[in-house]
C-alpha cells in the first residue's frame, strides 16, 4: 500500500466546475473561463487539489457541451484558447491539477465528421458512425435512448437510420472503426501536451455496442444496456487508449462507467491497464423507482450495504454525492426544513462520504449547501432531458408526475448559478443569467458563509484539511461499525496501528449510541456537545480511537 502515497489523484480532492454556471466575466449571463480564473484563489483556500472541468469545447449546446462540434477549439461563449492556456497556468501556479471532461461516445451532429458521413453511403466518414437500414419502415431495433423515446433517427439523404443513445443531435461514434479511434487518441494527446492532467471520460462504458445490435426484450422502445454497456470489446478500446495516450505520463483517467457493478468494476480499474478510477451510480440510483423520476425514500440500511460492497470491491473508489447530472445533495438526501437542519445535514453527509477510502469529488455549490431550485414554470428550465420528458408527458397526460420528477430530480437543479454573493444575481453575472438564480441566494452564498464561522463552507474546509493531515483517512482500511443501527452510519478507518471512527446520524431525531465516545478525542464535529452517548439530529463526529 505504501507506494500509492505519491499518487496525486489519491491525495487530492476534486472539485467539479460547470463553467456555464460558475462565474461570468463579461456580463453576457454565461459563465466563462475568465470567470473561473477569477475564482481560483477561492478553490485554493477551500483546499481543492484538482478541478474537473465540464466540457468547454465548441458545441451547439443541444446537451450543454456534451455534444462536441470541434474537439480542438474552445466554445466561443467560454472564451479563447489563450484563456484556456491562462487557466492551466493559473491552476498549476496554485498547485491545482486540471482534468478535462471528454465525450467520445458520441459527437454533435454538427461535427464535420457527421456532416460528411450523412452525405453519402460511400463517404469516407460514413463508418465513423453507426448506420443501419430500417426494418419494415421502422427503426433497425427497438432500443430506447436516454433522452428521447427511440435511439435511432432517420436520415433522408441516404434513407438509413443512425444510432444515438442520447439526443438525436448526439450521434454515437462507431468504435469498431479504428480510424475515429486514432483521431481521438491524437486529439487527447494534444490536450495532454497542452498541460492538462487527465480526463473524465463521459459514458465511457457505452463505447462498445453488441455487434448484432439485437432487440431488447419488451414492448415499445426498450432501454437495453445489456447490449450497449460493458460489452467485451470495451476492454480492448480502453487498453488501446491507455497505451496510446496515458502510458509514460503522470496523468489520471476517471471514467463515467454507467451500469458498472461491484462484479465487473475490478476489470476496468484494478489491473492498471484501463482506467485509474470510475464513477459508479449505486448511491445516485438509491432514490429511484422504476425510473429516476419515480422517487423512493432514502434507505440507510441499503446505503450501508452499497458503501460496504464498493469499499470492498475495488482498491480505490471515487466518493461523491452529486454532479452536474444530479439534484442538489442537501435537498435530496439531507433536510432543509430549518436552517439548522440544512447546515447540519449538509455537513453530516459530507463527513459520511468524504472520509471513506477513495478520492472525493465535490460539485460546485455543494460546499455552501446549495439547494434545489423551486422552478416556478417550464419556461425557466433549460435541460434537454427535462424538456423532452415534459414534452412526452404532455402527450401521454402525465404532466403532474413529470413536473414533480423534474422539480426533485431534474438536472437544472445543479445548473442554477453559483451563489457567490447577495442578490440580484449572487455575484454570478452583471447581466441576465442564462438560467434563473435560486431565490435563496440572499441567505445561501459564499460571502455570507465566509463571514460565518459555523457555515457549511467553513466545515467543508476543515473536513478537507483533516483528510489531508491524516494518512489514516486517505490510506486506511474501511470497516463498517454499528451495522444494525437504524439511524447511524458509522465506520472506522485503520492504518499502521491508528484508527479514526466516523459517526453520522442520518435522521432528524436523536440517535442513541451503544457506548459514549470520548469528547476529548473528537477531531471534527458539526455540533456543540452536551452528550456523547447520543447523536443529535444529523450530527457528525470524527473521533480518534
Ligand atoms: C453523461 C454526462 C451528461 C450527458 C450524457 C451524454 O452522462 O454526465 O451530462 O448528458 O453523458 O453525453
Ligand atoms: Ca460570459
Pick out the low-confidence regions. none
Give the beta-strand count. 20
Number of helices: 17
Q: Order of strands in the sheet with the most strands? A: 11-10-9-5-2-1-13-12
Mean pLDDT: 97
Proportion of residues in extended strands: 15-25%
What structural category arises from helix and sheet content?
Answer: alpha/beta
Description:
- The protein has 545 residues and is α/β, with parallel strands linked by helices.
- It is built from 17 helices and 20 strands.
- It has helices spanning 8-11, 33-38, 40-46, 81-93, 112-117, 178-193, 225-228, 233-246, 265-269, 300-313, 329-332, 339-354, 384-396, 399-409, 446-451, 456-469, 471-475; strands at residues 14-17, 50-53, 57-58, 70-74, 97-102, 131-132, 152-155, 160-163, 198-201, 252-256, 277-279, 317-319, 358-363, 477-481, 488-495, 498-505, 511-512, 522-525, 534-535, 540-544.
- An eight-stranded parallel beta sheet has the order 11-10-9-5-2-1-13-12. A five-stranded antiparallel beta sheet has the order 14-15-16-20-18.
- The radius of gyration is 23 Å and the shape is globular.
- The site of calcium ion has 6 residues, from loops.
